[in-house]
Design brief:
204 residues; alpha/beta; 6-stranded parallel sheet; two-stranded antiparallel ribbon; globular; disordered N terminus
Length: 204
């Protein structure tokens, strides 16, 4: 099947206090590796609680106890954002050709999308995130997941990626983890390279 017959839609989800434009350079980095792919990098629906950029949910006063509730509350606006991009690009009946790529809070939302079973997309790539979805999980088990994290992340510990994989694998999900030594809360060239090869493999 040619790439024109089966294009790929990559939806990039930024972190809190950021914007879609901040992840757009990844599209420039990846477009040659996945020819014909369409890239979308929306702003999250709400202005950030801290003044700059946008957020999927507020992290002001967030705790381990209230985080999952905030994710649940964020779902309708998240789903509306994703649906609009999918419909605009003609992928409503081709969820298997869609990749969700998240960073930080964007990863939390991407993992929630698949762990809740709401979005059985072709693949999920998450950088520097965590699984914090409300229980019980009912995942889309056909969606492979790649989680990449820096071992020196001061914002979200790399142990969260290990925990996410440990929670999702017993439910039947395929989860690959990459811990990048010495890396902080960011996306490295190594992580970005693994991500694009993962996407190409998952949707080939």
């Amino acid at each position: 099947m040619s790439t024109t017959a089966s294009p790929m839609l990559v939806i990039m989800l930024h972190g809190v206090g950021s914007s879609g434009a901040d992840l757009a350079p990844l599209a420039d980095l990846w477009k040659n590796a996945v020819p014909g792919a369409i890239f979308a990098s929306p702003n999250a629906p709400s202005p950030s609680s801290f003044g700059a950029g946008y957020q999927w949910f507020s992290v002001a006063g967030v705790t381990e106890e209230n985080r999952s509730g905030r994710i649940k509350e964020a779902r309708p606006a998240f789903d509306a954002t994703i649906s609009a991009i999918i419909n605009e690009n003609g992928f409503a009946d081709r969820l298997d050709r869609i990749v969700l790529v998240g960073f930080s809070q964007g990863t939390i939302m991407a993992l929630d999308a698949v762990a809740s079973g709401r979005w059985p997309v072709g693949a999920v790539v998450g950088f520097s995130g965590r699984l914090a979805s409300p229980l019980p999980l009912a995942p889309a088990v056909g969606t492979p997941v790649l989680l990449v994290h820096g071992s020196a992340d001061p914002v979200i510990p790399a142990a969260e990626t290990t925990r996410a994989a440990a929670a999702l694998r017993p439910l039947g999900m395929s989860v690959e983890t990459v811990i990048v030594p010495g890396l902080g809360h960011t996306i490295s060239a190594e992580g970005a390279a693994r991500a694009v090869s993962f996407m190409a493999e998952a949707l080939k």
